[in-house]
Amino acid sequence: MRIFYLSALCLILLVSTSLSLTSSQNIHTNPLEALSFFSKDYPKAPVLKDTSYYPVISAQGALAVDLDSSVVLYEKEPDQHLLPASTTKIITALVAMDYYPKDKVITVVDPYVDGQKMGLVVGEKISVNDLFYGLLVFSANDAAEVLANNYPGGRGSFVAAMNIKAKQLNLTNSHFENPTGLDGVAQYTSARDLIRVSQAAMQKPYFAQIVGTKSIVVKSTDGKIVHRLTNVNELLGKVEGVVGVKTGWTEEARENLVTYITRDGKNVMIAVLGSQDRFGETKELINWIYSNYEWQQVKLPSNTEKITQ
Fold first, then answer.
1. In terms of pLDDT, which residue wins out, 293 or 29?
2. Which position among 19, 44, 57, 178 has the lowest Cβ density within 10 Å, counted as fewest Cβ atoms?
3. Known catalytic residue at 89
4. What is the DSSP secondary structure assignment for residue 204, as one 8-state letter?
5. Which among 16, 70, 86, 198 is annotated as catalytic?
6. What is the Cα 95 distance to its own chain's centre?
7. Contact at 8 Å (CB) between 96 and 180?
């Protein structure tokens, strides 16, 4: 039994370390945790066919992961603390979705905030569902602030809940001081943490539906105020397999993007932070990954499922 266990573990470590990128590692730092990803159906694991070329990108931090095997496909300073910009709104949405029923109606009190806005008006009554679309499709800062301000205890309690959620998701290199992503001394994240939080978020069908929306029109409950929302993500609907997740930009943060790609049954998540060309560099990584990796069947002993329990 021990021999089977060690054989399976060694096989997974071999697959993970087959990448020649510097310090490549499984997104789970514990190899035993990585082993649990291999269910009795044993997913195929990616193996790099050609090690002569690796993309060179301007992003300060980047990580690409095969979600089914948890094998790292590309990395560049994945744990460096960087400004998240509007990728913050992923965790803003998770906290808000934990509390608000999507059909709840909120009266807008003070929608004024810097940056991207959907155009909420004082006194406007709008559903939480429509605020979520403003938050995640149009990356609206006013939607983020309205959701935070109406949380029990107000904005401060909402931000505290964001940091609690970050700890629950093991975001060890993240901290938040506002729900919008505007730059702050204590507002930071990493490429690895963005992969973790995005993976958790995309497991929610409601979240995945919203971030996969190209454009939508939402209205106040009386229908008098109209908000036309277009997704900021330029890869959505243009690059095969892209189904989300979230953009981010400030002058200091530069360009950020988290992308979920599903193509030919292979599911990949990519995060780039501090890029000079988030869409171009993400597209380059997507093309490189799907052209240069071969997904090979991992064969484990027939009784491995008993060992991993």
1. 293
2. 44
3. yes
4. S
5. 86
6. 15
7. no
Q: Which of 69, 139, 174, 190 is catalytic?
A: 139
| Catalytic residue, candidates 16, 70, 76, 89 | 89
Q: Which of 103, 84, 83 is nearest to 92 (CA)?
A: 84
3-state SS assignment for residue 257: strand
CA–CA separation, 37 and 305 (whole Å): 11
Interval 21-63: pLDDT, tens: 333 333 333 333 333 343 445 568 999 987 878 999 999 999 9
Take residue 302 and report the two structure tokens written for it. 């027939």
CA atoms of 169 and 196, how far apart (whole Å): 7
The one-letter amino acid at 239: V
User: Does the domain at residues 85-230 carry the CATH identifier 3.40.710.10?
Assistant: yes
Q: Domain ranges in the chain?
A: 2-80+238-307, 85-230
Burial readout 16-45 (b: 16 or more C-beta within 10 A, e: otherwise): beebeeeebbbbbeeeeebbebbeeeebeb
Quick one: DSSP state of residue 278?
H
Whole-model pTM?
Answer: 0.83
Return the C-alpha torsion angle 245, 213, 155, 150, nearest 10.
Answer: -150
Question: Is residue 291 annotated as a catalytic residue, yes or no?
Answer: no
Asked if residue 245 has a cis previous peptide bond (ω within 30° of 0), the answer is: yes
Is 86 noted as a catalytic residue in this protein? yes
Q: Is 42 helix (H, G, I), strand (E, B) or coil?
A: coil
**CA 302/CA 231 separation, integer angstroms:** 46
Query: What are the structure tokens assigned to 202, written together?
Result: 């995309």
Q: Provide CB contacts within 8 A for 247, sequence distance 6+.
A: 86, 87, 139, 232, 233, 256, 257, 278
Average pLDDT, integer, range 267-283: 98
- In sequence order, the 6+-apart residues with CB closer than 8 A to the CB of 69 are 15, 37, 38, 43, 44, 45, 46, 298
Q: In the structure encoding, which two tokens stand for residue 201, read together? A: 């978020």
Question: pLDDT by residue (tens digit) across 69-105?
Answer: 999 999 999 999 999 999 999 999 999 999 999 999 9
